[in-house]
Amino acid sequence: MPLKLTNFLRKLQNQYVTLELQNGSTVYGMVISVSPHSNVNLRDATLDRYYNSDSVYSEVTPQPISTSHLKNINVKECFIRQVILPDSLDLDSILVNANEVNGLTRSGKLADLGGNRKRRRRSSSNMTKRLRG
């Protein structure tokens, strides 16, 4: 089963991300929660509003018209154009689906990395049994 976008965004909790909105604005903040409809709630957010891209005043590297610092902001899913992830984010650990890993370890196709199996005593031919006396 593929990892859904909502579940992926939920795994980004307590990470700083940048959301580019449909109107060209950007919101940078820490992900607090993600609703089942992919609405994103951010804390300590910075909202940058830019010139419209169709405007005569647009530049190659546009400067924001205004910047607002917000304590909390909830961004509805239909207004998000893209989610920009930080470079320091470890995607390998986020993209791993826990249910698939558990299924593969049970089937024996993947080595158990958790170390939660009981130790098994290896028997060798040179081991001597203790005599009871």
TrEMBL record:
What's a GO biological-process term for it? RNA processing
**What is any one of the record's Gene Ontology cellular component terms?**
spliceosomal snRNP complex
Q: Where in the cell is it found?
A: Nucleus
Q: Say where the protein is mainly found.
A: nucleus
Positions with biased composition (Basic residues): 116-133
Instruction: Identify the keywords attached in UniProt to this record, alphabetized.
Output: Nucleus
Sm domain mapped to chain residues:
7-50
Query: Organism's domain of life?
Result: Eukaryota
Q: Does the keyword Nucleus apply?
A: yes
- Chain residue ranges for the region called Disordered: 107-133
Designated name of the protein: Sm domain-containing protein
Q: List the top taxonomic levels of the source.
A: Eukaryota, Fungi, Dikarya, Ascomycota, Saccharomycotina
